[in-house]
Specification:
Elements: E1 9-14, H1 47-64, E2 65-75, H2 80-89, E3 93-101, E4 118-125, H3 136-142, E5 151-153, E6 164-165, E7 168-169, H4 177-187, E8 193-196, H5 203-210, E9 214-217, H6 222-233, H7 256-261, E10 270-273, E11 279-282, E12 288-290, E13 293-295, H8 297-305, H9 312-315, E14 316-319, E15 325-327, H10 328-344
Length: about 350
């Protein structure tokens, strides 16, 4: 990580060692041995040793993140609280903790604790003043037009998705592509640079490539490097035209006065609510007069609806020459289209 230029990465997804501190072998009720995470890379001599390791790589992560960059770190109860403290100590700004609820978790074979059915992800920006990417509207649509919540029900990696070598799983903690897809779709843009400092079997790189992101992976185990490289090379990227976020594009601001300046609306006209129950007179200064009140299209519509605020573009309509009732928002879109055509010329 020290070789990576400062402020050159848009998003980091880190799946670091969890420091599970497993003691002895674990067996199922039928006496078959559980293939637990007992790799050397997950073993640390003490909490102090793990904390130093975590602080070292997080310091580099903060350095290489762009001004508005962000990081995701995933962990379990063994390590995520220590990671969270160090993140805050270094000046990262925690945005959310997301609970990945495993719909098919491994059972607790000893029956001595609750079934551990989740892991925790921390999403944090480089610092408090950063403005990280977040595609709120796209995530809402993906969740049936309801706000995407911070509890994600996603199965663990299994079946055909689980990479195996000679019939044995290649990596003990391979994450499901669905989890990385949600992270990358929600918090990056096409062409962004995504870094995984603990690449493992290459899930982050595979999903990043599929979604048209640039990818940097760091991995010290040569076997994992080969597995991940072969996997990522076999990925076909989605066509660029399907990688856009049209629902999250903020419309260009158009003052209501522009419609008067172009003649789309005339002083002395009335604007109407869609049900024609209310109408307001358009004044020459672009204000609306309703009863004894005068104000903007937004203020007057809010007064009518007895609300603190309201979007007047969605409330008001006008009659055109052919007698058709037209939304002033449609007139705004026509104005934007004409402005675009002028700029193209």
């Amino acid at each position: 990580m020290k070789k990576i230029p400062s402020e050159s990465v848009d998003l980091i997804f880190a799946d670091p060692p969890y420091n599970l501190q497993l003691g002895g072998d674990l067996y199922r009720p039928n006496q078959t041995k559980v293939d637990a995470v007992d790799d050397d890379w997950d073993k640390f001599s003490s909490f102090e040793s793990y904390d130093k390791f975590t602080k070292d790589w997080l310091e580099q992560a903060q350095r290489i993140l762009s001004k508005n960059g962000a990081i995701w770190v995933i962990g379990s109860y063994h390590n995520i609280f220590r990671v969270g403290k160090i993140l805050q100590d270094l000046g990262f700004w925690i945005l959310n903790d997301v609970v990945w609820i495993k719909s098919n978790p491994m059972p607790n074979f000893k029956g001595t604790r609750f079934n551990n059915a989740h892991e925790t992800l921390i999403w944090a920006s480089k610092n408090q003043s950063s403005k990280p990417t977040f595609h709120y509207k796209s995530m809402k649509i993906a969740n049936d037009d309801k706000q995407m919540r911070s509890d994600w029900f996603i199965p663990i990696c299994s079946g055909a998705e689980r990479i195996k070598v000679n019939g044995v799983k290649a990596h003990s903690t391979q994450k499901p592509e669905a989890l990385l897809r949600r992270v990358i779709v929600s918090t990056t843009n096409e062409g962004d640079v995504v870094l995984d400092p603990f690449m493992g079997s290459g899930t982050t790189g595979a999903v990043a490539k599929k979604l048209g992101r640039k990818f940097i992976g760091i991995e010290r185990d040569k076997n994992y490097v080969k597995i991940a490289t072969d996997r990522i090379q076999g990925i076909v990227s989605i066509d660029e035209e399907f990688l856009q976020y049209p629902i999250d594009v903020k419309p260009k601001r158009v003052p209501f006065g522009n419609l008067l300046e172009t003649g789309s609306i005339q002083p002395g006209e009335y604007l109407y609510s869609k049900n024609l129950e209310f109408k307001a007179l358009v004044m020459s200064d672009s204000s609306l007069a309703w009863n004894d009140k005068v104000g903007s299209i937004h203020k007057i519509s809010a007064l009518i609806l007895n609300k603190e605020a309201n979007n007047g573009w969605d409330f008001w309509y006008t009659y055109k020459k052919d007698g058709e009732l037209v939304s002033i928002d449609d007139l705004r879109q026509e104005f934007l289209s004409e402005e675009h055509d002028k700029n193209e010329v």
